[in-house]
Amino acid sequence: MTYGSGSMWSHIYTAKDILTNHYDIGDYLTFNYKADLREIDKSIECKVYNEDNDQLLTTAYLVARQNNINVSGGGTEYGIRNVRIECNYYENME
């Protein structure tokens, strides 16, 4: 579902916590998300945190009943090495 890039590192969807050691990539991260939610009635909210100080870096929304492809997760983050990505269903309050 999610992937981060910095010299094009990526990771496919997983339902468990993961640790990565990609210290050979540049000191910047951009986040893009993809999730086929055409059969799902709930949208997903993804938040990226700086794991070192718990600072919220970006928030992205994946829309229910759509094939979300290459959804931007916000701007580029510089100098961040340890991130935590939390994605959860959320109720759209429209």
Write up what this structure looks like.
- It is a single chain.
- With 94 residues, the chain is mainly beta.
- Strands 1, 2, 5 and 6 form a 4-stranded antiparallel sheet that branches. A 3-stranded antiparallel sheet has the order 4-3-7, with no helix packed on it.
- The two termini are 24 Å apart.
> Total helix count?
0
Structural class call reads mainly beta
- Uncertain segments are 1-6
| Strand tally | 7
Radius of gyration: 13 Å
Average pLDDT value? 78
Q: Roughly what fraction of the amino acids lie in strands?
A: over 45%
Elements, N to C (H/E): EEEEEEE
Query: Helicity level, as a percent range?
Result: under 10%
> How widely separated are the two ends?
24 Å
Shape: elongated
Largest sheet: 4 strands, antiparallel
Describe the structure using short key phrases.
94 residues, mainly beta, four-stranded antiparallel β-sheet, three-stranded antiparallel β-sheet, disordered N terminus
State the gist of this model:
The chain has 94 residues and is an all-beta fold. The protein has strands at residues 2-5, 28-36, 43-50, 55-62, 67-72, 77-78, 83-90.
Layout of secondary structure:
Blueprint lengths: L1 E4 L22 E9 L6 E8 L4 E8 L4 E6 L4 E2 L4 E8 L4
Antiparallel strand pairs: 1-2, 2-5, 2-6, 3-4, 3-7
